[in-house]
Amino acid sequence: MPFKNMPLMKAAAALSLAMAVAPAAPRMAMAADTLATCRAIGDATQRLACYDALAAAAATAPAQPAVTATAAPAATPAVPEDPTARFGKEKLPRTEEQRAQDDAEQQEEMHSTVAKSVALPYRMFAVTLENGQTWVSKEALTFDPKPGDEVRVMHGLLGSYSMVVGHSRVVKATRIN
Length: 177
Description:
Elements: H1 6-21, H2 24-40, H3 44-60, H4 83-86, H5 96-104, E1 109-120, E2 124-129, E3 134-137, E4 150-155, E5 161-165, E6 171-175
Antiparallel strand pairs: 1-2, 1-4, 2-3, 3-6, 4-5, 5-6
Helix pairs in contact: 1-2, 1-3, 2-3
């Protein structure tokens, strides 16, 4: 059927015309109208082709010159983060730059106290420290951690961590926030 791609062709033509003629602000409104046109297409294959044509036209559109500000805002000086707050953070998702900076400033162990603890199955615990970090034991503890108990978290082998709560034995642990 020769007219079954008509909504797709209308959307592509409208987008091409909008990108070639319109300035940036009206161009955004026309792109939104074209998105609405694509969204209204019933057939999934044609709708996808419409969105693909929209994306291709947006990628080939000439870039608008950047607007330069006359006065740049003054940069606020960076406040260095507390080393205790960074302890164990290298396992959390982050950029390569953050990872390199954290590795250079890494501590060997951290001392804190328990703010609260939550019992987990098999005598394991999620321990929230006074600095806001939450560590989960990977092994059973011999007693229930109570608020005010001292906690020592150390680096282990191969990127692991060990934790001592009060006078308990050393158990493997992982930081979850």
